């Protein structure tokens, strides 16, 4: 989940921006996110539910982010009652539901397919802006929507009768809707709050949500002591779940999001969006090599068609900008 919104980044003067550096950093973040999908799926293979995995990721990430915020920007953590409700909606509807539904999707679908479904969020946003906010969009939105639907039909191989798990597809589309809320609500908060404290608050509300929905006395701590068996293309490997969970929190969450914010100091959101489209492709490659998740050629072609449709939809609502 790396699609950026330009307002989230700190503005860097043009003479100090290094585009090649920004692209490189963003690609590293995309790779970390891509590996994170496989790590998360491996953790669930030992019996951890998507709910508990979401709780673990949100809570541990929040602890790290809170320490970083209090050390570097303690005054910026202050909030007002008026902002409190918006941050709560951002954390629960955006962060919590996006992560949870994504975990449900990858639990039931190949990682790359789940990401393709989630990445349709920009199309949902464009349609929402057109009909709910009556904003003008370019005609290429409809071409993008048509390409995305056609590509998803290829991925699902509908001519064989839907070959994908129905619950997984619904979860993936639900994750896309939650991601759309994440962007739309987050854009309002980001105008007055820096990326670090905004992310910290959002993960804080996600942590509070799961603490109520899934009290910690029900958490399956014993699963952290197990080993996940990975049948890779290079042979069988046993990895401790606690190692996979540590990667998920540190590299797949905190560091990856930090790299995205760093890259956006040197790239516009539209430039980074194109690089972000590499994530489903990278995630599919990682899942193929580590989890042995193979896609048919027609599904790979369908995935590329979906990505082309998403890029067109994204460009239809916001012309390319260079800050």
Helix % is 55-70%
Distance between the termini: 23 Å
Question: What's the shape?
Answer: globular
Strand content: under 5%
The overall number of domains is: 1
What is the residue-mean pLDDT, rounded to a whole number? 83
Q: What's the order of the H and E elements?
A: HHHHHHHHEEHHHH
Low-confidence stretches: 2-16, 319-323
Using only CA atoms, what is the Rg? 19 Å
Strand order of the largest sheet: 1-2
Largest sheet: 2 strands, antiparallel
Let me know the number of strands: 2
> What class do helices, strands and sheet pairing give?
mainly alpha
Secondary structure tally, helices: 12
> In oligomeric terms, what are we looking at?
single chain
Give the topology.
Layout: H1 19-44, H2 50-72, H3 81-108, H4 111-118, H5 121-131, H6 140-156, H7 166-190, H8 195-213, E1 227-232, E2 235-240, H9 241-263, H10 269-276, H11 278-291, H12 297-317
Antiparallel strand pairs: 1-2
How would you explain this protein's 3D organization?
The protein is mainly alpha-helical and 323 residues long. It has one domain (6-317). It is 69% helix and 4% strand. The protein has twelve helices and two strands. It has helices at residues 19-44, 50-72, 81-108, 111-118, 121-131, 140-156, 166-190, 195-213, 241-263, 269-276, 278-291, 297-317, and strands spanning 227-232, 235-240. It has a two-stranded antiparallel sheet. A hairpin with a 2-residue loop joins strand 1 and strand 2. It is globular, with a radius of gyration of 19 Å. Residues 2-16 and 319-323 have low confidence and may be disordered.
